[in-house]
Predict the structure.
Amino acid sequence: MSDERIPVCATPDEAELTVEASSTDAPEPERYEFLEPRRYLFDLDRRNFIRIFGAGLAIVVAAGEAVAQESGRALRGQPSVPGDLAAWLHIDESGRARVCTGKVEIGQNIRTSLTQAVADELHVPASSVTLVMGDTDLTPFDMGTFGSRTTPTMAPQLSKAAATARQMLVARAAARWRADAASLRVEDGVVHHPDGRTAAYGDLVKGQALSGTVAADAPVENPRDWTVRGTPVKKVDGAAFVTGRHRYTPDIVRPDMQIGRVVRPEGYNARLVDVDDSKARAMNGVTVVRDGDFIGVVAPSERVAVRAANAIAPTWDVPKGQPSSDTVYDYLKANPERPEPVAAGSAALPSGAREFKASYRVPYIAHVPLEPRAAVAEWRDGRVTVWTGTQRPFAVRTELAEAFHIPESRVRVIVPDTGSAYGGKHTGEAAVEAARLAQAAKRPVKLIWTREEEFQWAYFRPAGVIDVRSAVDPSGRIRLWEFDNWNSGNAGLRSPYDIAAKTERFHPVKSPLRQGSYRALAATANHYVREMHMDTMARGIGADAVQFRLQHLSDARIKAALEAVADRIGWSSRGSRALGIACGTEKGGYLATAAEVERAPKGFTVRRIVTAFEVGAIVNPDGLKNQVEGSIAQALGPALFEAVEFADGHVLNGTMNQYRLPRFQDVPPIETILIDRRDLPSAGAGEASLVCLAPAIGSAVRSLGPVETALPVQMKV
Amino acid sequence: MARYLLHVNGREHEIDAEPGDSLLFVLRDDLGLTGSHFGCGEGQCGACTVLLDGAAVRSCVTRMVAVGNRTVTTIEALSSGPELHPVQQAFLETEAFQCGYCTSGMIMSAVGLLKTNPDPSDGDVARLMNGNICRCGTYPRIVKAVRLAAERLRGGTSTGVRHVG
């Protein structure tokens, strides 16, 4: 069982990623999720094993090898796309399990759900498992934490690793006792012989350097036999959050650390013309850093750093005539990246069918994670260590290596459990800036972006224009579906409805503003338009909005969610209540949402929300309920009031006072129906549940009067 | 710079600061009390909430010159040893957080609220805590947690509850 040389981290091959992509029904990899190829392979010898892990049993999750065994393809020497599936699991002499994964905890609670998976398969209590996450020196390469991939991809890998470890430990006990392994059972990390003899995991690995790799077909528990998964295990180290003890990146302090500040340009695409930094340079203890258009200061304290930054007088040239939040929609349609092969909305109308056309506008919105971008950077002996809140620690390591022209082996990125991200922290701006400042100051430097910087200089959820054109025949069947999305993105682009003639196109545009991932990506925009248009057609032909959908749905999982929600909100007995409903599927989740609205002095108000969500076998029912409720509360913002206003290269509403976010009083009662399918694999649950809220509200508001074809939902005046 | 005598968490600290410095940065940078978080710097999100003579305030917009002789209580002093404050315990049991960044501010606001309103309705909690933002959207759970804590405080279990782990 023991091995002198073990591959610690290997790359899965393309075949696996292709399967992954098609199973999530994405037409092509989502362009806003930064799926960049990277190679990463290294080995550990026995001495390093002991140095890194200490004695014990290490299980190496090497997905590429497992796939190669399955497909008969060689792993080494062939180009491959690395994935996010590598991990290590180690059991030490005290019987504690330590898992190393490059995934990060940003509030989606995977530290807890992955702990559950490992504890369940190892047959140990969750408290015996520790996860080391998002540290590029301690964890194997990982593409990043996004796309709801942790539960469907990392959790099964860790499950297999833990199951393999358990089997190896049982086999060792069997060998020690000359017993049949099948006669032994494990409880709370102790192997039991039928005659009463016992051996704890820790005893079985004492003084050893054991290792194993995971077979692709390593048997794992049937979800029906789960004992730790499927239960509402509390958040790991929850007490650290209610006591303020947890250290987020902005809370980290290093010896001799100073505070940094960056002097930002006056607007987007600005060019530095001239700068007078003499006053700042004259300040006691202040270091001014100039490098191209980058201007920053380092000072012993925040108050001095702010004063020094304010004392710098740069002159910027900001180009005139940049698109504004009013003109951006025309700009997007007029500036596709590629010439249009076929004009949108040009398919022939089936004879006798009634045509429905609309053009929707979706604004840029901001993520506004409560923890702003921040980093602490420290150089020592040509190596830099950076603590920062990011969803992609390994990509940030690359950013740093490239920015400073050093090998990645001299960069370490550590991600403390982070004050949220929502897709907004794929990048390492603060990390690179802090490292540049620390390099100049020759001391550790902490940089925390201000809220204004976060609004102006982070990236946004893409704005978009979505044109939709359809036709319904006299029997009530949809005969034509043309859906053209400029810039929002292709997640959720495909309609799940049974329509023979469907054309769904995503038209990339060079966005005038910096844009990127946002929780659920374009699925929110695409579901909004598709479901609002389903409602338009149902109203247009006098059909019931639920029946009209059901007549075009053969997907049993969407149907189950839709019927559950319709039943709970009392759709068939709605009387004069203003109800709206929407359904769909995204990232392996199946959902429906219904909303009840009523008139208010300023238009309408949301009275009640019901949502049904199915993501296969539920790993943590309370954690899932928390995610679903939270995603609905968060989605109220883009549905009701969030939109970035900008002009001339400036964000015009870039403060929390001006950019309205959902607050306590905005949240109506939310009823969640969680459909547990123990017969199906678990899908990720942190994103998809928000995509049907806006169309549920929008279609409900139509019962009160005409609604704009735009987000946020507004009544026509 | 001026010298201030600051009463924080039952101790006195002599601090050299500018009159316009925010209490939040003095707490975090000068006293190392990082449990109060910076979220917006405009008093809009509540992540920095502390108690000033028992009343919840936004420490990011509270200037040093305005603190005076009042006593400052931060999340770090809400409980000592293994005993959690009933509001902390209720947040933990209800799991009224996701990323946790707003949590200490939420808890301090709730403690302030319950001092003046020991039996709030759901609507009272929503109205009185509307100045605190949870970007993860755990508002329904926070309302539950505050009401659970209120019930326990009224029931006389205010000495705290042993927490596990």
The helical segments of chain B are 23-30, 64-67, 86-94, 103-116, 122-128, 139-154. The first strand of chain B starts at residue 2 and ends at 8.
